[in-house]
């Protein structure tokens, strides 16, 4: 494992390598403790580079067993090999030569899960971002595109299945019960897309015929016996392939497309060319074991990794600073896919909630960075919500500014111009400028400048002059290492809303460019005047969440209620109601701190009841509207001096007020929504379950609530309902006999199903209050728990630290102490997962002074540990800075 060198990589230091690797031929002789890797590399010196330039290859913990050039072994003075680097000191004079390297690695001892490792006796790989250098010495950087041929040898009984990238070209038997397979990938690719899988796995097979009539063999490989759990993933794959042809004109390009599910995986999934490798959590599902949210995630992630075949693989990144080029764009594509497959309105609200929950705190805290960063110490720590989620919003804004047609023309040009290349964000922006004739230079700041812009808006109406005026001012708060910010181009969706929700027309507008319902904010301050407006309209702002900004709007409460009931833009209608809830919660928080129980306006609780019962709205939409802002959302809106206990009290009081005011209405609806027919994971059925389960969440607060939830739990015929009821019991009735019983029943039923047990860990890690840290500590000793498995660690430790405000931020600091200890324990095996966990403390400065001091102590304790990995040191030092 690499420990920290302290080196900072800088975008401005990029320069092409002196050498290229045109062809890469790999032979693997697999063995858990001693796998031999023979790499034959066709190397070419770049034109203009002196023949004396040494060839320096990356390694990470490697042992070199042999090295030869053009058939001749090198002498010790001809090269310098350390575990982390191989330098060929005097390369041949010829511009092209063949380098053969032999290394030995131990997949069974690889607990970092980067490079070649074992997961439940299956050999698998994870090479992004810099894992390939743990397999062999290489120019392990994304701008080195090479054509790979891979031969895998293994004992047939241990590994009947041998997979790599590209198409299968040969296979056969060897002596002593061994066999081999050869794979060839005709598309040049960077090393981070290399993959190998070997083991005994079950297969689900299908095929897909592309638009141009080619047949592609599809395979999903899972643990033997779990084949029937891969049906939904296969269906999602075929829908993804079809959608990419229709929406972007992109066809698949190999004869086979394989997906392998493994149970030890650092991330969600990986887009290796022709051989995607997945965390099994994002493949395996049936109604008995997976929730509707799991089904939706599987669909989205299958799509995401498939879409990378064009946005990431055919066109890759020049360097890791350009990560958003593939990730932000591919997230945008998977969002659009899910919107088309499900409900666009509901999907958009869910996206915005995720963005605000994960990206906003990142952008507003010590880890803030631009969508395209300019420096990093550890690239693994830059797979962030900013690169992904904000990166996707930036692509969406390009489409908003250009319109659908010019956007598509730009994408077509991107594929045409850069296919087979390693590109940059500048290349990406240029295709849209060329396709549309627009100037995107000010817009480009969205890639280069960190921080969430704020728009302050006020409005006035002059009835005599029939003039409606919006005053809009932009500001971007300072972020670490960027104190002065430049003015941005913000496409602000808007609508003037009149009686009954009808759009209000106007004659003319001045003060900003306004087209297609979008005000283009480019200056610090715009005074936008609409003429010919007789009646004062309500103004609906940032419609569709057209820009990832915060808004400070002076708005009458009456307008807010009106928009929550009538805005024709479904996102903004949801937003209006959500803002009313947030305002009420913040007022209640202040009351709680002042010692009074909060009172809630009847108007608000009544509106909640009307939305719940509004049959013109989709059930899934109503469920989203009724789900109160989370404790972390409220904390973010309060900003400073956070006391999580007071926030919880305020939130529970509002939930109770809504439940009491709507008891009969909610009960009736709850009963009518009971599932009849057979289970279906489709969006409409899931929406009905979501609405019924949020109603249960409210009704469970009333007398007899625990009994109602217990009945819901016992009668559940799918995991969505079962997990929802268990959550209600464990969180709303912690310690009750009903909660204890349900937790015990669930454990007894699923103790051998690791993915379902993750839900059991998660639910218990989320129980609000001061006792949970002890429960979580005890659960680390549960037989189903393991510090070596990322899914287990995230379910228990990750949920506790990032989704349990009152438990984690216990006033005496015990949550933080447990956390620091555990992060260091995880880090010994897996620095990448430990570093991700550690980001849970990034908002420590917003806490009230007592908790702030204790959180800082925990961070300092981590920083003081010996031999800290680059991953963890980078996060902890930036968080403390
Ligand atoms: N390329 C990534 C996987 C990855 C991330 C590998 C970081 C190495 C380091 C993959 O395409 C990805 O983005 N996966 C996401 C899920 C996706 C739906 C956003 C993940 O794994 O969380
Ligand atoms: Zn991705």
Characterise the protein shown here.
- By secondary structure, the protein is of the alpha+beta class.
- The strands form 8 sheets. The chain has an 8-stranded mixed sheet with strand order 6-5-9-3-2-12-15-14, with no helix packed on it. A 5-stranded mixed sheet has the order 17-18-19-21-20, with helices on one face.
- The protein is globular.
- The model has no long low-confidence stretch (mean pLDDT 98).
- Bound molecules: ligand BES and zinc ion (ZN).
- Ligand BES is lined by residues 128-129, 267-271, 300-301, 304-305, 308, 327, 331, 334, 383, 388.
Topology:
Layout (H helix, E strand, L loop, with lengths): L8 E2 L8 E11 L5 E11 L9 E4 L4 E7 L2 E2 L5 E4 L2 E4 L7 E10 L9 E5 L2 E5 L19 E10 L5 E4 L2 E7 L4 E12 L6 E4 L2 E8 L5 E8 L8 H18 L7 E7 L6 E2 L4 E5 L12 H16 L8 E2 L5 H19 L2 H20 L11 E2 L8 H18 L1 H15 L3 E2 L1 H12 L8 H4 L5 E9 L4 E9 L14 E8 L10 E3 L2 E3 L2 E4 L3 E7 L6 E4 L8 E4 L3 H10 L3 H24 L8 H12 L5 H8 L4 H8 L5 H18 L1 H10 L10 H17 L5 H11 L3 H14 L4 H14 L3 H12 L6 H8 L10 H14 L1 H4 L5 H16 L1 H8 L10 H15 L6 H11 L1
Parallel strand pairs: 2-12, 18-19, 19-21, 22-24, 25-33
Antiparallel strand pairs: 1-23, 2-3, 3-9, 4-8, 5-6, 5-9, 7-8, 10-11, 11-16, 12-15, 13-16, 14-15, 17-18, 20-21, 25-26, 26-31, 27-30, 27-32, 28-31, 29-30
Ligand BES binds next to strand 20, helix 2 and helix 3.
Based on Cα principal axes, name the global outline.
globular
Q: pLDDT average, as an integer?
A: 98
Strand order within the widest sheet?
A: 6-5-9-3-2-12-15-14
Quick one: how many beta strands? Answer: 33
């Amino acid at each position: 494992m690499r420990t920290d060198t302290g080196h900072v990589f800088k975008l401005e230091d990029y320069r092409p390598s002196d050498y290229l690797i045109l062809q890469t031929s790999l032979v693997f002789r697999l063995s858990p403790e001693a796998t031999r890797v023979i790499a034959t590399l066709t190397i070419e010196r770049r034109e203009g580079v002196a023949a004396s330039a040494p060839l320096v290859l990356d390694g990470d913990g490697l042992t070199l067993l042999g090295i030869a050039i053009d058939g001749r072994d090198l002498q010790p003075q001809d090269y310098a090999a350390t575990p982390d680097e191989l330098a060929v000191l005097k390369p041949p004079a010829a511009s092209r030569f063949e380098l053969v390297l032999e290394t030995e690695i131990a997949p069974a001892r690889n607990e970092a899960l980067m490079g070649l490792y074992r997961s439940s006796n299956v050999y698998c790989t994870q090479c992004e971002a810099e894992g390939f250098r743990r397999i062999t010495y290489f120019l392990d950087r994304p701008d080195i595109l090479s054509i790979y041929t891979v031969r895998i040898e293994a004992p047939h009984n241990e590994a009947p299945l041998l997979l790599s990238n590209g198409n299968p070209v040969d296979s056969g038997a060897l002596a002593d019960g061994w066999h081999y397979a050869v794979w060839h990938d005709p598309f040049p690719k960077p090393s981070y897309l290399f993959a190998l899988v070997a083991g005994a796995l079950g297969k689900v097979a299908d095929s897909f015929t592309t638009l141009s009539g080619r047949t592609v063999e599809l395979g999903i490989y899972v643990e033997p016996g779990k084949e029937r759990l891969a049906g939904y993933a296969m269906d999602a794959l075929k829908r993804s392939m079809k959608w990419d042809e229709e929406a972007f004109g992109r066809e698949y390009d190999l004869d086979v497309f394989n997906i392998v599910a493994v149970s030890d995986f650092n991330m969600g999934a990986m887009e290796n060319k022709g051989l995607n490798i997945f965390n099994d959590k994002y493949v395996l599902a049936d109604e008995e074991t997976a929730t509707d949210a799991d089904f939706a995630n599987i669909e989205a992630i299958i799509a995401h990794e498939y879409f990378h075949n064009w946005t990431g693989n055919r066109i890759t990144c020049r360097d890791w600073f350009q990560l958003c080029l593939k990730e932000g764009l591919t997230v945008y594509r998977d969002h659009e896919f899910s919107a088309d497959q499900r409900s666009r309105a509901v999907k958009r609200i869910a996206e915005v909630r995720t963005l605000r929950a994960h990206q906003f705190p990142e952008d507003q805290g010590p880890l803030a960075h631009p969508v395209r960063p300019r420096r990093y110490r550890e690239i693994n720590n830059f797979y962030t919500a900013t690169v992904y989620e904000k990166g996707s919003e930036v692509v969406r804004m390009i489409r908003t500014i250009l319109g659908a047609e010019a956007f598509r023309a730009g994408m077509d040009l991107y594929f045409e111009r850069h296919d087979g290349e390693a590109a940059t964000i500048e290349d990406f922006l240029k295709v849209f400028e060329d396709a549309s004739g627009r100037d995107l230079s000010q817009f480009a700041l969205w890639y280069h400048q960190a921080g969430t812009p704020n728009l302050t808006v006020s409005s006035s109406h002059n009835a005599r002059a029939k003039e409606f005026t919006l005053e809009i001012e932009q500001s971007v708060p300072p972020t670490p290492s960027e104190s002065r910010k430049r003015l941005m181009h913000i496409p602000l969706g808007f609508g003037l809303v009149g009686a009954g929700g009808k759009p209000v027309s106007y004659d003319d507008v001045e003060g900003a460019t306004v087209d297609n319902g979008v005000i283009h904010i480019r200056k610090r301050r715009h005074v936008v005047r609409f003429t010919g407006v007789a009646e004062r309209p309500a103004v609906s702002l940032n419609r569709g969440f057209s820009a990832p900004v915060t808004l400070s709007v002076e708005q009458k409460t009456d307008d807010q209620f009106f928009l929550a009931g009538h805005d024709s833009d479904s996102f903004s209608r949801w937003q209006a109601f959500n803002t009313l809830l947030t305002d009420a919660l913040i007022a209640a928080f202040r009351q709680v701190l002042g010692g009074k129980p909060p009172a809630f306006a009847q108007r608000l609780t009544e509106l909640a009841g009307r939305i719940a019962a509004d049959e013109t709205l989709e059930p899934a939409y109503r469920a989203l509207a009724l789900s109160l802002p989370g404790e972390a959302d409220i904390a973010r809106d309060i900003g400073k001096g956070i006391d999580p206990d007071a926030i919880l009290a305020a939130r529970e009081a509002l939930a109770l007020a809504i439940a009491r005011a709507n008891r009969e209405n909610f009960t009736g609806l709850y009963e009518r929504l009971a599932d009849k027919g057979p289970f279906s994971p489709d969006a409409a059925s899931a929406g009905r379950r979501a609405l019924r389960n949020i109603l249960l969440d409210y009704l469970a607060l009333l007398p007899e609530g625990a009994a109602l939830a217990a009945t819901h739990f016992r009668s559940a015929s799918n995991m969505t309902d079962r997990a929802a009821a268990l959550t209600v019991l464990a969180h709303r009735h912690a310690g009750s006999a009903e909660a204890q019983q349900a937790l015990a029943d669930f454990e007894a039923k699923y103790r051998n199903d690791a993915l379902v047990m993750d839900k059991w860990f998660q639910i218990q890690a989320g129980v609000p209050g001061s006792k949970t840290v002890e429960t979580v500590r005890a659960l680390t000793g549960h037989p189903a728990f393991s510090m070596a498995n990322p899914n287990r660690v995230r379910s228990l430790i990750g949920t506790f630290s990032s989704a349990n405000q009152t438990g984690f931020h216990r006033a005496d600091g015990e949550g933080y102490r447990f956390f620091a200890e555990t992060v260091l324990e995880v880090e010994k095996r897996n620095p990448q997962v430990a570093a991700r966990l550690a980001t849970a403390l990034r908002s420590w400065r917003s806490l009230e002074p007592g908790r702030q001091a204790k959180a800082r102590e925990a961070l300092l304790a981590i920083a003081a540990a010996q031999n800290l990995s680059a991953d963890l040191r980078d996060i902890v030092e930036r968080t403390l800075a």
